[in-house]
Amino acid sequence: MGNPNGIKYICDFCGQLIEIGRPRFILKGELYGAYDGAEFDETLLPPSTNIQEEIKRLIAETEKKSEKELNDEVYYAFNADLCRACRDKIYSILDEGRFG
Fold it and tell me: 48 vs 36, which has greater pLDDT?
């Protein structure tokens, strides 16, 4: 008996087809810049630093990037479909305490 909706799932990590009736797992995540409490203190800049020139340099660097690239530097949310094997690998990494 096939899937009446014709929906097929592919593991986003290994590319394996996740057959209907087989376990499928969803990984949701967010990557975002963390505030470390630091404040900008221009007195820490080398004396030769021209603030206006530094601002121009940063603006020029920023203009080279797309809106997506700039947004992704500070916040990126994702969802991934996983097969059982990839779920087990990711779970193992997380459970070993490598992420927290």
Answer: 36
